[in-house]
From TrEMBL:
Superkingdom classification of source: Bacteria
PROSITE patterns tied to this protein: ASP_GLU_RACEMASE_1, ASP_GLU_RACEMASE_2
Annotated source species: Atelocyanobacterium thalassa (isolate ALOHA)
NCBIfam families given in the database record: glut_race
GO-annotated biological processes: cell wall organization; peptidoglycan biosynthetic process; regulation of cell shape
Protein name: Glutamate racemase
Keyword vocabulary terms for this entry: Cell shape, Cell wall biogenesis/degradation, Isomerase, Peptidoglycan synthesis
Functional summary from the UniProt entry: Provides the (R)-glutamate required for cell wall biosynthesis.
Pathway per the UniProt entry: Cell wall biogenesis; peptidoglycan biosynthesis
Amino acid sequence: MRTVNDYPIGIFDSGVGGLTVFQEIHKLLPQESILYFADNARLPYGNRSSTEILQFVREILNWMSYSKVKMAVMACNTSSALALEAVRKEFNFPILGVVLPGARAATKYSHRVGVISTLATAKSDSYRQAIQEINPNIKVWQVGCPELVPLIERDKIYDFHTQEILKKYINPLLEKNIDTLIYGCTHYRHLEEIIKNIIPYKIELIDPAYYVAQSVKKELEIMSLRKRSPGFNVRFVVTGSPKNFSRLSKKCLGYYPLVDFISLNRNLQELMISNTINKNN
């Protein structure tokens, strides 16, 4: 019989951006099983209202709860900024976000920080608040970049148009003489090659995904939830097109993952019924 330690770590994002978090967690904790959820039917999240984001997050976490995860990771800055604190007390497993680990990392290097993110994350002012809570002397500038996630999800990373859009977003930060640039959206590491051609080499790049993985490891150890049995299992689930997600994932993962489509509410009802039957037996 499976124990809680054998349950997977749940990771969710609106699309392929959270795969950067998936990779870092798997690299650091290769024995841990992972359930990756992409809500690609409703992306991008960055243009949604805080009410919509909170609703989406609750739906996904409910589904993960009935799917038996031992921890959930919001591999989405927008969700982390707008919904993390609201939902943490609603579920009986730890829930981690990406904003605080990224902000903590930035304070180790920086005096002048630039953040590129979705519009919703930028409007939330979450990175500025988190960084200045640690060190109020650090200057922080945030730029919302609404065009980037759709371009990445449409596989337009290397289009000339994408490079010009990136320059439009990053140049105002360079004018502030930033010494650090944070990827305030997990999708943006997919643009790293282009970003490095735009910014001076002396600017420190902060990818919160790496620091989230460190936080996951620490939390699992504190709560004695590390997996004890050998073997790694992964399941990819999407609410939109499995084919598109698998195709886009190839560039990040190096292979085409098997992807399951689910209708979120219908599948949740099925899981609830199944769990009720198992309890009665």
